[in-house]
Amino acid sequence: MNLRSLEQFLSLAETLHFGRASDECNISISALSRNIRQLEEELGVRLFNRDNRTVTLTLEGKKFVKYARETCNQWNLIRHELADASDRLRGEISLYSSVTASYSFLFDLLRRFRHAHPEIEIKLRTGDPEHALAHILDGSEDITIAARPSKLPNGLAFKPIATSPLLFIAPVEQQVPNVPTHPPTDPKEWAHIPMILSEGGVSRYQVDDWFAQHGIKPKIYAQVTGNEAIVSMVSLGFGIGVVPKIVLDNSPLASRIHVLEVQPELAPYDIGLFTLKKNLANPLVEAFWNLM
Asked: What is the pLDDT of residues 119-149, one digit of tens each?
């Protein structure tokens, strides 16, 4: 067993796709398959269930993921401790970010980080912001940019970047009778307006709390993952939505959206960097953390 085998195993465990994992590891699919089989033979267990269509982790594979991640992290730590006395950091860190956060905050962070630490490689994965903290807590990624929940999970470190208001948005032009372009004058009217909301996450908790405080049971037209999809559906006139201001500021559909002046306003939330507290012992993670 060697570090490269562990890295290849982790790539396949994350993607569950031999083609994508082989691209990430810069080896052929046949070589990756051969290396995984050899790893399984050394361990004496199957790590993956695979057929012509799907790849899934076995129970033993899920247990081995934790060992492989910790081993790779420890290797990077000891390598830096034993390296020469130069101040140049080398290695790789992984980041998880939503598409919106990537061009709202990450561009400037990566630009400054690349200038300060040119020999640290960045592995960036984009996806649903609702899953950001889960990727940190299970060790899949080193750092993420996400909204701060009301209660911070144990073992998690947070460093704020910005505060974003949450906005009610409507289509510029009324396309169906029950989707207004202005906020209702009577709070009871909200119960009859189709709402397009996030499936979960901080913004959904905030808007659910807002409706509960007003004694309103909202009419949910759609629950979606990804704030950009909310903007798109609202622009087409399907309903009224709620999105963070940073999403609207960077949306190509902003001209087709009207922000509703709703009182009282929804509570804003903080956006920032998250990592496991123990990850801050890694000099690479600490270097990125200290950019803020």
From this structure: 888 888 888 888 889 889 888 889 999 889 8
Number of domains in the chain: 3
CA dist., res. 288 & res. 292, Å (int): 8
DSSP code for 214: T
Residues 240 and 214: their CA atoms lie apart, in Å, by 17
Phi, psi (rounded to 5 degrees) for 14? -80, -40
Which helix or strand (DSSP H or E) is residue 221 part of? strand 219-224
Specify burial of residue 53 (Cβ count, 10 A radius: 0-12, 13-18, 19+).
Answer: exposed
For residue 198, which amino acid is it?
Answer: S
- Of 162, 179, 165, the C-alpha closest to 233 is 179
* Within a domain: 45: yes
Long-range contacts of 20-28 (CB under 8 A, 24+ apart): none
- With beta carbons less than 8 A apart as the criterion, state whether 258 and 170 touch: yes
* 149, amino acid identity: P
Alpha-carbon distance of 57 to 16, in angstroms, equals 8
278 and 150 in a common domain: yes
What pTM was estimated for this model as a whole? 0.69
Classify residue 77: in a domain, yes or no.
no
